[in-house]
Design goal:
about 350 residues; alpha/beta; Quinone Oxidoreductase, Chain A, domain 1; Rossmann fold; six-stranded parallel beta sheet; 10 helices; about 30% strand; globular
Length: about 350
Amino acid sequence: MTATDTMRAVRITEHGGPEVLQLADVPVPAPEPDEVLVRVAAAALNNTDLWTREGAYGRPDDPAARSGWRGPVGFPRIQGADVAGRVVAVGAAVDEDIIGRRVVVDPALYDGEGPDAHPVGLMGSERDGGYAQYVTAPRRRVHDQTESPLTDDQLATLPTAYGTALGMIERGRLQEGETALVTGASGGVGIALVQLARARGAHVVALSSTPKTDAVRDAGAHAVVDRARDLDGQLDAAAPRGIDVVLDVVAGDLLSTGLPWLREGGRWVVAGALGGYGVRFDVRRLYLHNAQLIGSAMHTPAHFGLLMELARRGAVRPVVAAAFPLAEAARAQEELARRRHVGKIVLHP
């Protein structure tokens, strides 16, 4: 490729509604010495795309401030954290053996190089992402999936949803034989949590709405609880010994009232706030029962490596709800925001 090559990409130049998503012809990015250039086959949508576009993350000193995932967004920004595609070029310091390989990109920007480094940035927020025909990524964050039985669409669904889910399960120390409660179970992260917790040998209780019960049960849930009905009574029946680990992307009132569901020494892992970020609870339910409240932002490099090994074996089977062409990214995000689907929505550049 030459410096004059262009590609189609969907960018935002300000925070706002779906109308700020703009399809544009932009230069194909040139990989830095330690990077590769990936031709995007599929890019999956996530709630973080909506919240980054809206600037909904706030800041520690100003919760109402418009902000990207971890701070101000540098506009214009190409959205999209989740990418599957093929490597078509490499930087000067990268071995060319990777060219032509089918890959998945780890979208996290980490605070160090070790296996337990924390994510402090995200592709599509702190650097350009996959709503485009091409994207660059550090070679060490590109994972070869050429031999995986999963489709490109399925591979694209993995990084944020399954990475976040596996990070929650690992940080919550979920063990075989324990009981896990998955909230928001029909969403992308929720379905991933159900599949991964079931694969770990846990008894999985899922919290969802009635129209999506069958799909959540098909994903592997042993029991599905209707969030519109009496939760205490349903959980007593589905998990009479209590919950060992809550895997929560909802928070809000659910966290405010749900701590008594935990068994002694139980863990409540939060990785989202679909139900609201203002939470109040009786702190006695925390310390008197040796419970733990754990925040979990995505995954570590070690978690992501484990996820990629599962993908190579086909040990997870992501659910793809719908696919849209890149030019219809705004419509795809609107569909994501309606939350009528089960699984993941992907874009095809």
